[in-house]
Design goal:
Elements (H helix, E strand, L loop, with lengths): L31 H48 L3 H34 L2 E5 L6 H9 L5 H8 L12 E5 L3
Antiparallel strand pairs: 1-2
């Protein structure tokens, strides 16, 4: 098992505080901010990949367009290309631009979905119950019904130590 050092005091032997909520036993530092930052960073990596894909696709469209335009100019000078072939090339450029716009819209849709569905996995500890967990994550124990709903919990609760709950993060 891999162990980590406390980012505050340097205490070694901690569990992965970027995947589960823990407190440092030496300095009593609450390491929840690292857990939350880790959750946000993962979605940022996905956005970066999608943005890179969009940029690569746009560059591909640009190079293909330049190639066809250059090829059209050279051939027109040498062989006197017909207007019909020029129209076909223009249609190709329009089609590629439409595909690019479609991909941009899909990226925006995916970004909106990931922004709406930010969850953190929380591992139940001894003495935990939904009110206490809601108080920790939302600052209000009365929001325990959100935890019930997201995890299909039914009263009376039978939370087991080590059970993983999905906690929807407030926006």
């Amino acid at each position: 098992m891999i162990t980590y050092n406390c980012p505050v005091c340097g205490q070694s032997g901690l569990a992965d505080f970027k995947r589960q909520h823990i407190s440092c036993p030496q300095c009593n530092s609450d390491l929840k901010p690292y857990l939350l930052l880790s959750a946000i960073t993962k979605t940022d990596k996905r956005k970066n990949r999608l943005s890179l894909l969009l940029i690569v696709f746009s560059l591909l469209i640009m190079f293909v367009s330049i190639f066809f335009v250059k090829r059209g100019i050279d051939t027109k000078n040498d062989l006197d290309i017909s207007n019909n072939q020029i129209a076909q090339l223009e249609d190709s450029v329009v089609n590629l631009n439409n595909k690019n716009l479609s991909l941009e819209n899909k990226i925006i849709e995916i970004e909106n979905q990931t922004a709406q569905n930010k969850y953190v996995k929380y591992t139940v500890k001894k003495g935990d119950f939904p009110w206490k967990i809601a108080e920790f994550f939302y600052g209000d124990g009365r929001k325990y019904v959100l935890i019930e709903k997201e995890n299909n919990l039914i009263k009376p609760y039978n939370l087991q130590v080590g059970q993983v709950l999905l906690i929807k993060m407030p926006e």
